Amino acid sequence: MSVQAPSAVIMIRPRHFTPNPETAADNTFQTEVGPGRDEEIAGAAFREVTRAAETLASAGVTVHLFDDEDASRNDSVFPNNWFSTHAGGRVAVYPMYAPSRRTERRADIVEMLKSQYRVMDVVDYSGLEHDGAYLEGTGAMVLDHMTRVALTARSNRANPIVLERFCSQFGYEPMVFDATGEDGTPIYHTNVLMCIATGFALAGLGLIRDERRRDEVRDTLAEPGREVVELSDHQVYEFAGNAIELKTPDGLVLALSSRAAASLTDAQREVIERTCRILPLEVPTIELAGGSVRCMVAGIHLARRPVDVHPMRDEAVLT
Q1: Are 195 and 276 a contacting pair, CB within 8 Å?
Q2: Is residue 136 part of a domain?
Q3: For the chain, what is the domain count?
Q4: Is 208 contained in some domain?
Q5: pLDDT tens for residues 8-51?
Q6: pTM to 2 decimals?
Q7: Is residue 9 within 8 Å of residue 53, measured between CB atoms?
Q8: With CB atoms 3.0 to 4.6 Å apart as the test, which of 17, 109, 130, 195 could cross-link to 243 if both were Cys?
């Protein structure tokens, strides 16, 4: 069984999704949308999340799907930025860079985790926002649960002091590097750059411009015997790195967007399919906000309680 791939996830279905102008300055993956399309975009995003959750559930993944009616939360569809879960019953809650995103943290979701999974400890770093220190969860960090390394690209959203504190308390080794786009802008989240699965890793190593550091990252990804699949810069911007390996009763699947899947070469697919079934999800509207499938899915790495619990308000459990 893989410690890397969770079998249950949390997703948020927003009623008022739209690309967030507050995050556009440092998110070069984001697409500007003209005026007058808010209702159209919100409706399309709602349908995309619904279909994605149903597809994952049909594949055998347990999906805890929460609705969000708050019109002020543009990016609530990306819950992996504000919390993460960890083996041993631990939950981390993170400080967010954009003020408009800080209300995405929801006590009802943490309470659901406590009621349905074994949660021993919740470590809340969100107070560090008052010190201008941010760490946007498993967007800012890509966690290797097998080798206990937290790979992190330097950005506004990954403060090194908060990273060190998280790693010390949760038992990871930080590995920090610089990664930039063609215009020199830092990659805003590490999880658009790479995906770590059990038997392979997808990584846009060319965006790590320092050759020595690039080799060190490649070696770290390969350390437990993984095959490293190098993504081109173009594939990174097609969200091929923004994928997540999930566990189902029938084996492992790699969830990624249809756009990302279409960018893969036959040779890359061959490596992935040795251990995973590729599971494309159609989320083009969500991708306007600069994130894709990995950003939409918060994995649950917690032990399930043995009792059945009724869904909470605003939650649907899809299995």
Answers
A1: no
A2: yes
A3: 1
A4: yes
A5: 999 999 999 998 888 988 898 988 887 778 899 999 999 999 99
A6: 0.95
A7: no
A8: 195
